[in-house]
Amino acid sequence: MAKKVRSHYTCQSCGHQAPRWFGRCPACEEWNTCAEELPPPEDHRRPERRAPAAAMQPITEVSLEEAERLLTGLGELDRVLGGGIMPGSVVLVGGDPGIGKSTLLLQMAGQLAGRHQRTVYLSAEESGAQIRLRAGRIGSLSPELLVFSETNLASILEALERAEAMAVIIDSIQTIYYPQLESAPGSVAQVRECAARLVYFAKERGVPVFLVGHVTKEGTVAGPRTLEHLVDTVLYLEGERHHHFRILRAAKNRFGSTNEIGVFEMRERGLVEVGNPSQLLLAERAPGVSGSAVVCTIEGTRPLLVEIQALVSTSSFGYPQRVATGIDPKRLALLVAVLEKRGGYQITSQDIFVNVVGGIRVEEPSVDLGVALALVSSFLNRPIEPGTVAIGEIGLGGEVRPVDQIERRVAEARNLGFTRCLVARSNLKGWRRPEGMEVVGIGGLEAAQELALLQK
Ligand code: TYD
Ligand code: MG
Hints:
- It is a single chain.
- This protein is α/β, with parallel strands linked by helices and 456 residues long.
- The protein has 3 domains: 8-39, no CATH class; 70-274, 3-Layer(aba) Sandwich (Rossmann fold), CATH 3.40.50.300; 280-452, Ribosomal Protein S5, domain 2 (2-Layer Sandwich), CATH 3.30.230.
- It is built from 11 helices and 21 strands.
- The protein has helices spanning 75-81, 101-114, 128-137, 153-163, 188-205, 226-230, 277-282, 329-343, 368-380, 406-415, 445-452; strands at 8-11, 17-18, 34-37, 90-95, 119-123, 145-148, 167-171, 209-214, 233-238, 245-253, 261-267, 270-273, 292-299, 302-313, 322-325, 351-356, 388-391, 393-394, 400-401, 420-424, 438-442.
- The strands form 4 sheets. It has a 9-stranded mixed beta sheet with strand order 6-5-7-8-4-9-10-11-12, with helices on both faces.
- Bound molecules: thymidine-5'-diphosphate and magnesium ion.
- Thymidine-5'-diphosphate is lined by residues 95, 97-103, 134, 137-138, 266, 268-270.
């Protein structure tokens, strides 16, 4: 064990250093910017020397070959990672407590170990027996899966040096600590120091490391986003806790796109990949109810049909409510204003609730038309014709605008048995309609409403 080194405290805003913790920086007078830091150490694990400097070379001679990726055995996870795990990469998996991070990574560990790729699952939260019980339930038992319950990072690194693992999982970064820092586990200083040392381990050994990070109340992984800069990839596991869907999303990915999502379902035996999420997302739809519209968004490489539900009801207070789940509240405010101003619907004084079914979050403007139609449908209490999908962005003038990849969206709608698509008029040219699908081009909201709503 290395000798005790005195740490110091640094203002993260101006760099002022002090021997003691401070609430407000004496130099720049910012609040809550103090973080504990170790002095630049002679410690042997620090990335100073060791690795020989890479030689300079002409850019034309740089090899284009990518290192071979390790497949996790979970197709959805592989896709979000950009086609498997990059050797030596560090992946942060964030999410609310209880959402399924441990389950996902234990399943991955079981798959890797099952293919004789030794994997270390370090848990600072659960005992070996607890992990074994869970692993047994989700089919992850394998002699090549090494479990380890430890919280001291110095001991962890020592053990990892010897383990010769192909992959390492640290569950979680907030519960381990580096003994030379005085701060408590989970503090910014500890989280950052531990992560930095694990990153160095990964790079030096070429062993991928997965870090589990609980999301704090503010919605960031503890340590004001410092962790996100340290690692190669940041994945978030999202979903409603009491809902069985789980969406895995990349917020940052040095080795792939950040548009891909992976869809899982939480069952008794762990997370199950969902091959056709559209079908599942629409499974509970009750056609003929007002305020429900189906839209088609593209997440990464995949079109996804989702149901938007809206409820517009008379407000009993002076200040009408706006609740948006799964869509951007500002976008909702904009659509409401357009409906009032251009469509002549007096809805700004009403309580408005919008929900994207299944705990999904949609960000594409292509859902605008669907959201607007759901609002109108609820306001007028007239259901939308059940075979219809609405695809289009809405401009401030109330006009319906074209979206990209229209052919793929319409094809997905056809695959799931829809028979009519409402699209922007300028989106009609240059692509082939699938058989059995009526595609209607519209210019503005008024026409859309005429076509979408069932006659009373
Ligand atoms: P967990 O992976 O422990 O969440 P996290 O690590 O993100 O805190 O998952 C906990 C929840 O998942 C728990 O409420 C029980 C549920 N669960 C299942 O429904 N099925 C399963 O097979 C497992 C392992 C967990
Ligand atoms: Mg956990």
